[in-house]
Specification:
By secondary structure, this protein is an all-alpha fold. It folds into three domains: 102 residues, Helix Hairpins; 79 residues, Helix Hairpins, CATH 1.10.287; 52 residues, no CATH class. 73% of the residues lie in helices and 0% in strands. It has 13 helices and no strands. The longest helix has 25 residues. The protein is globular. The N and C termini lie far apart (59 Å).
Length: 275
């Protein structure tokens, strides 16, 4: 099968996508934009695509999810093609590595261990296996291996989970709440005396403790904030719809009017959940 034939063969699966990516990166006949890209320039798109997958799931848009998963898969193919060109590894190496990891991390499915375990026990076993993998890579510190490129709130949550495993943690959520009150009071009281850099640092401390509270409450802060962002967007669109019914835009309104509409939208949502 020629390359052109493969590219137009809709039944060819992943091999078709790999060939498309190879052709896009061809230095003589490929796309100039794709040829110019690097791991660093593509990484932000990879993160964005992962969030678009999460967004489609949050909105239960299953037709969109198919496309978003394809976009995310293409990111893996893009990185693998660049790695292949540099002589690091190829896409099949990625597949083999992932397959080996899943087999080794699920001895209760692919090995001799019993499947009669609780979800908590399986999670503990998973963490034990991952710790051994980190040790094999000379990642001996408790925080080693927590990716620097993660969204900051998610990384804070993961750092705190790692620290908690070795005993560096508040005893209860009540202790965290006390720390939040302390940090927020200090920030408010000192904001007039601090430089902007210091304000940013103190605000970061407050966010970090908030992430820790989420962990103590069993709430993943990144997911919680995404949910609140979606709720804010939905309700504000309701405010805009209410204004449009009055022949207005948000720019033509004031805070009192918009706040009243916000409360109406909120009340309608709550009433809808009870019916």
């Amino acid at each position: 099968m020629s390359d052109d034939k493969l590219i137009h063969d809709e039944s060819a699966g992943i091999e078709r996508l790999l060939e498309i990516m190879r052709r896009l990166r061809d230095p003589e006949s490929g796309c100039p934009w794709d040829i110019e890209q690097s791991f660093a320039s593509i990484a932000p798109y990879t993160i964005e695509e992962a969030y678009e997958v999460a967004d489609a799931i949050e909105r239960k848009k299953w037709d969109e999810l198919k496309g978003e998963l394809g976009d995310l898969l293409f990111q893996s193919v893009f990185h693998a093609q660049m790695a292949n060109e540099a002589g690091y590894f190829n896409f099949q190496d990625v597949v083999t590595t992932m397959s080996n990891k899943m087999v080794s991390r699920h001895p209760h499915v692919f090995g001799d261990e019993s499947r009669e375990k609780s979800a908590d026990q399986q999670t503990q076993d998973w963490e034990t296996i991952k710790a051994a993998e980190r040790a094999a890579k000379a990642e001996t510190g408790a925080l080693d291996g927590v990716a620097v490129g993660l969204p900051a709130l998610l990384r804070a949550y993961k750092l705190q989970k790692r620290a908690a495993r070795v005993g560096f943690d508040w005893p209860s959520a009540q202790n965290v709440l006390a720390k939040i009150a302390e940090e927020s009071a200090e920030l408010v009281e000192a904001r007039e005396e601090l430089t902007q850099d210091e304000v940013e640092e103190e605000f970061g401390d407050l966010l970090f403790v908030m992430a820790n509270l989420g962990r103590h409450l069993g709430v993943e802060p990144e997911a919680a904030l995404r949910r609140t962002n979606a709720k804010f967007t939905r309700r504000f669109k309701g405010v805009e719809a209410g204004l449009a019914a009055r022949g207005k835009r948000a720019e033509d309104s004031d805070l009192d009017e918009m706040d009243a509409l916000w409360n109406e939208v909120k009340a309608e949502e709550k009433a809808g959940r009870k019916t």
